[in-house]
Amino acid sequence: MQFADRAARYPGLPAAARATVEQFFADVHAAKPELPVWVGSCTCRRIAAPTRRRAAPSAGNRLCELALREAEIWGTLGLCRGSTRRPAAAP
To answer: Domain residue spans in the chain?
Structure first.
């Protein structure tokens, strides 16, 4: 709500009004715009397959990022507690 109030004061942003979902659809129905009609599935098959193929590597990347973050936190904590020992180089 606060963002909407601030955004109303900035020039160049489109006008917006606060309303309920029911009011929004009532206004659209009253305006009777010519809306597109979809038939069948709205899923683009060219996009869905690559997304599934990237899911496992993305999950692995997230796990690696979490492990790296945890290692950085523990390393920083060790330095803060006075440790000067560095981890051994990876093989």
So the answer is: 2-31
